[in-house]
Every structure is written in C-alpha cells, then in structure tokens.
Amino acid sequence: MSEITVPPGGIIPGEGEIEINAGLPVTLIQITNRGAVPVHLTAHFHVFEANPDLCFDRRKAFGMRPDLPVGWAIRIEPGQTVTVPLVPIRGQRTVRGFHGLVDGPLARVDLNALLEKLLARGFCHQPDE
User: Fold this and answer.
1) What pTM was estimated for this model as a whole?
2) What are the structural domain ranges in the chain?
3) Tell me, what's the pLDDT at 8?
4) Contact between residue 75 and residue 39 where contact means Cβ atoms under 8 Å apart
5) Distance CA 118, CA 47 (A)
6) pLDDT tens profile 34-75
7) For residue 123, which of 60, 86, 115, 118 is within the disulfide window of CB 3.0 to 4.6 Å?
8) Which CATH class is domain 27-120?
9) Is-contact 85 26, C-beta < 8 A?
C-alpha cells in the first residue's frame, strides 16, 4: 500500500460531486468588455471594482464575486458580452485592494458616493433598465 503525500494546506477530494456556494443567492449580470484586451474575473474578485473597461450595472455587483470554484476565472474577450453569475462575498465582508475603492467593510460604504468616485475615475457603469 502506498502513502499519499499531501503538502500543507492540500486537499484530497472525496468521491462524488461537490456543490460550491450551496444555498447562496445567485445574481446574473451582463458584462461587456469595451477594451482592447481580454479580461479575467477570478473567483474572489470584488466585481464592482473590476476593470474600468468592463460595462455592467456596478450597483448590482457591489459586494459580489463570481460564482466560481477557487482557481477558476471567466475570460471576457474584447467586444464580447457574457452573462456572469455572482454570489455575495461572505465572512467578514471586508474588501481590500483591487482598485482601492472600498478598502474596508462593505457595510460601511456609501454606495452612491462610491459610484460617483468610480465614474470620476473613468469606470464604465451601465445600469440595467
């Protein structure tokens, strides 16, 4: 019988299917890449702060991340429009980094003021009708 060596933090998956984000509400948004290069949205990215050349309803994406397994991404080609499933950021709901727009607890953000700041920086925001 051989031993399996697992590095620290490694996981040995069990048999069967694993459902990620079970029970979380899913919000679908349409995102269009108006830029000249492909853009990747990874599993833990605060979509509200995604690439300024991505056009979508950023208000709907506030506090949300893509509904993807860790290590995966959605690739959006220039000129392409895709439907992206989003789920709420969980845990302490603190966002740091990205474009530095939130940089703290989501609950303490004035969304209207934040959206004005985002627009002043040239981000595309396309509210749903």
Assistant:
1) 0.84
2) 27-120
3) 77
4) yes
5) 13
6) 999 999 999 989 999 999 999 999 999 999 999 998 889 999
7) 118
8) mainly beta
9) yes
